[in-house]
Amino acid sequence: MTEETNVPERKLRHDSTQEFDTVMESIAASPPMNHPAWHINRPPGSPWPIKAEDISPVAWWRTLPSDAYRDAEQLVLRALVKHIGVLHGGDGLRAALAGDAAAAIDVAFTLMPIEEITLTVDIAMTALCRCALAPNASAALVMAQVLGLTDLDHGLATELAASWYCYGLRHSTDQRKFREAKSVLLKSFKDWHYRGEST
Predict the structure, then answer these.
(1) Are residues 137 and 172 in contact, defined by beta-carbon separation less than 8 angstroms?
(2) CA–CA separation, 137 vs 25, rounded Å?
(3) Could you tell me which residue, 8 or 57, shows the higher pLDDT?
(4) Which of 176, 178, 93, 94 is nearest to 135 (CA)?
(5) Concatenated DSSP letters for 133-171?
(6) CA-CA to 153 of 20 to 30 Å: which in 11, 12, 59, 77?
(7) C-alpha span between 157 and 48 (Å, rounded)
(8) What pLDDT, on a 0 to 100 scale, did the predictor assign at position 186?
């Protein structure tokens, strides 16, 4: 596997295995918000229910789809990570906040599985989100994985994961290999779902 497709398996809990199949297997090159898979939990044509101005920018990674990051939101993210100082985050988190995508990916994987959303998680994932928007297909793929394998209180994790997968696919230099990662993601999502049902 290449760097873009080397995605370790993690856990996930959602209500329907069919939902994973529908979202991840039907994703095409169309913009995520217009894709029919987006409307699994919402009526067709309804806007994304969470707005950037209603929440803190450090929570955007877990509440906004990739196409919600227009120029204004990206400027806010860049300014935010530039002004975050870390005392105990180590060199990896400092590099991630400086825009090093490999460091941001490494830091994100050290957090997995995310069982509680803390300020540390929000900061690390905000750094990863910023790297994904650079654009960086590998960081976008990891965003998809982390979101799909994390319990979020709004029930839109699958849609968020799908949006970052689509974003990464659009910006990948090797779309064939990137598409291969879809089956790895789908398997890890299903595995976590089954583990969640059995506990």
Answers:
(1) yes
(2) 19
(3) 57
(4) 178
(5) TTT-HHHHHHHHHHHHTS--TTS-HHHHHHHHHHHHHHH
(6) 77
(7) 13
(8) 76
